[in-house]
Amino acid sequence: MEDFVEIKPKGKPLKRIYLNLMLWFMGRAVQASAKVDPKVKQEFEALPHGYTFTLGAFPNGPWMVVGKDDAGRVKYLGRNVKDKTIDLWMTLKSVEALFLLFSFQESTPVSNARSRLFVEGDLPHACAVVRILDIVQVYLLPKFIAKLAIKRYPRWPLRQHVIGRILVNARTLIGY
Known about the structure:
By secondary structure, this protein is an alpha+beta fold.
């Protein structure tokens, strides 16, 4: 056994930088969408107060932590999962699987079907979070990319697409 050499994977710094940026932007967009979109508000109202969920890659991230405080406000809580109580963990197998998801090469249902997504927590809450993330992706992405990222593209009025997209993107950039 002394001849055994452990091979450690490389760090993939460019993918990690890209994923950190995407998760930061997505977390802030979830917070913004909760103030703009009535369906996202409704999904968050069904979650209990103080509820926190995270999305990231196994074993050591990157992570996105979003929570609902006791007053019912949705907040992006950053990347650190160590000092927070997390109610729902949505973990992808690896940085590669998370990159496939956030480079829009595969959708969330496809990642789930290929056993790349693990959920630790209540399944109904996980379904609500996936619905929220799908709505947020529709606001953030152009239609031809959003169709790749979600299962079904919604039939919203043009006004909702345009005004909602402007409000979500503005609030995401400003942080309000």
